């Protein structure tokens, strides 16, 4: 009898199964298409205790009770289909762990449905891509504490290990794990987009080659911007196409795809009423990129007049680094605020400092700045909006001139900067005592009698505007 079962042998499932087996556990595996299971067994499995099954009944029966089954299948309907398929063979007290990128509301529904049948369920965010799954991902399990206790030892062993401990913790109740993974991806979209905006200035304003940009990114990666996304970006810059000898990045079509987690983060933030402009604009940037044909045609129809300005290369590079740091901070700050609000609204009971700790290793948004963010949260756990901290304010104010300069420079060169601009606007909005929202209230009251509040007296007011 094997200790753990895993269903879904695409890249993530294969590597997670290998990772679990290499930590000394026996694993049963199953995949809908049996050829993939055979290929996996032949090409990837060596001495690991992994046993393949080709029908779901024998797969379930091969597991020690209470059974622990990890799903690594495509998010959405496939998760429900697979559960329905093996549910008849499960017993009360068995545990299902969904390690895919499931929508958190689906996870809440599944937890409830399965609880009625006596089956435990964990919705677990997994970050780190295929390499992470194999060598140690960041794991974000949510559900009941009892369910977590059943697999805690395995999860702590297979997760990435850092000085701050294994990158796995019990994230919180219900769909907390998948919620946190969703926002993780929203932040990931924003940071990726911010890096591309900085790259655009380096190549179009400073006219640097990918190699030269790679040198700059590598240097930044040795400093405050140290992160997985910075590291892969410098490596990408230096990579040449084997066929043509050209820089590969220059040959890649500029249409950015998406699978939906970034969009879900924005939709959810809008529903919760928490401002996440940098995360939202990162999704919009990907959508805009998809209109290649229109962009090509429109670019031909306008004349862009570029300014004749002295380019101070060293200043621009330093300001770009600061602007990127500003935007990365703003993106994390917005994401954490959403998590914090969701924790209250959905009663997840999430410890933000723990979330930041488990993002330190294995995951795509691992970054040096997480230590700084953790310090801010630890300073005052009520600081859900990080900007309330003195440290955060001085960090951003130190960099504000840089991001102002860079976003203006980009405009001079007709370069869009959806995330950098929105990061700055987010901060400017948050530090502005008087926003022009008074006029919106007046407009709403004018056309819809929606009423308004006043600054000089208590109460709710309505005006017959044209009669005044
Ligand atoms: P995919 O998301 O491409 O899913 C493929 C797997 O799902 C295959 O095993 C496939 O089986 C199975 N599947 C699809 N539809 C069904 C169905 N109706 N019934 C049964 N099985 C089905 O694989 P990945 O490995 O990329 O990802 C797995 C999960 O992990 C996803 O939720 C993904 O979002 C998430 N994830 C992925 C990351 C990545 O970097 N790829 C990172 C973090 C999370 P078959 O072989 O028969 O088609």
What is the compact description of this entry?
By secondary structure, the protein is α/β, with parallel strands linked by helices. 55% of the residues lie in helices and 8% in strands. This is 6-phosphogluconate dehydrogenase, decarboxylating.
Low-confidence stretches are none
CATH topology (fold) name of the largest domain: N-(1-d-carboxylethyl)-l-norvaline Dehydrogenase, domain 2
List the domain count as a whole number: 3
Helix percentage: 55-70%
Biggest sheet statistics: 7 strands, mixed
* Outline: globular
Strand arrangement within the widest β-sheet reads: 3-2-1-4-5-6-7
CATH class of the largest domain: Mainly Alpha
Per DSSP, what share of the residues sits in E-state strands of 2 or more residues?
5-15%
Tell me the quaternary state.
single chain
Reported CATH architecture of the largest domain: Orthogonal Bundle
Enzyme class: oxidoreductase
Keywords: Gluconate utilization, NADP, Oxidoreductase, Pentose shunt
Domain 6-phosphogluconate dehydrogenase C-terminal: 177-466
Binding site for NADP(+): 8-13, 31-33, 73-75, 101
């Amino acid at each position: 009898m094997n200790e753990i079962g895993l269903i879904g042998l695409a890249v993530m499932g294969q590597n997670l199964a290998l990772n679990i087996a290499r930590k000394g556990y026996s694993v049963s595996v199953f995949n809908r298409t049996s050829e993939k299971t055979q290929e996996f067994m032949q090409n990837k499995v060596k001495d690991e205790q992994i046993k393949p099954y080709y029908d779901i009944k024998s797969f379930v029966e091969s597991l020690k009770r209470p059974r622990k089954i990890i799903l690594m299948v495509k998010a959405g309907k496939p998760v429900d289909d697979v559960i329905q398929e093996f549910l008849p063979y499960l017993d009360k007290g068995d545990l299902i762990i969904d390690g895919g990128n499931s929508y958190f509301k689906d996870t809440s529904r599944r937890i409830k449905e399965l609880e009625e049948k006596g089956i435990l369920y964990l919705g677990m965010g997994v970050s780190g891509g295929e390499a992470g799954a194999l060598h140690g991902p960041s794991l974000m399990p949510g559900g009941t504490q009892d369910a977590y206790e059943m697999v805690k030892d395995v999860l702590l062993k297979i997760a990435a290990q850092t000085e701050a401990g294994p990158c796995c913790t019990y994230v919180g109740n219900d769909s907390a794990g998948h919620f946190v993974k969703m926002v993780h991806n929203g932040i990931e979209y924003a940071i990726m987009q911010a890096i591309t905006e900085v790259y655009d200035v380096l190549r179009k304003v400073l006219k640097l080659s990918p190699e030269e940009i790679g040198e700059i990114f590598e240097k930044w990666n040795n400093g405050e911007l140290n992160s997985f996304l910075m590291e892969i970006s410098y490596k990408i810059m230096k990579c040449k196409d084997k066929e043509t000898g050209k820089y590969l990045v220059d040959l890649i079509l500029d249409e950015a795809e998406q699978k939906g987690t970034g969009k879900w983060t924005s939709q959810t933030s809008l529903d919760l009423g928490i401002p996440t402009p940098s995360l939202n604009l990162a999704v919009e940037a990907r959508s805009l990129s998809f209109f290649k044909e229109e962009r090509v045609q429109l670019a031909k129809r306008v004349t862009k007049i570029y300014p004749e300005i002295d380019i101070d290369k060293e200043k621009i590079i330093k300001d770009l680094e600061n602007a990127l740091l500003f935007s990365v901070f703003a993106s994390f700050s917005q994401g954490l605020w959403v998590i914090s609000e969701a924790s209250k609204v959905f009663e997840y009971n999430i410890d933000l400092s723990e979330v930041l700790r488990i993002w330190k290793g294995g995951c795509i948004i691992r970054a040096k700045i997480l230590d700084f963010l953790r310090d801010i949260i630890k300073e005052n756990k009520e600081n859900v909006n990080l900007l309330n901290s003195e440290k955060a304010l001085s960090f951003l104010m130190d960099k504000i001139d840089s991001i102002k300069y860079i976003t203006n420079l980009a405009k001079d060169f007709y370069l869009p900067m959806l995330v950098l601009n929105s990061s700055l606007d987010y901060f400017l909005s948050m530090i502005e005592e008087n926003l022009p929202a008074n006029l919106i209230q007046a407009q709403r009251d004018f056309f819809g009698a929606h009423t308004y509040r006043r600054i000089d007296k208590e109460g709710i007011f309505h005006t017959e505007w044209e009669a005044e």
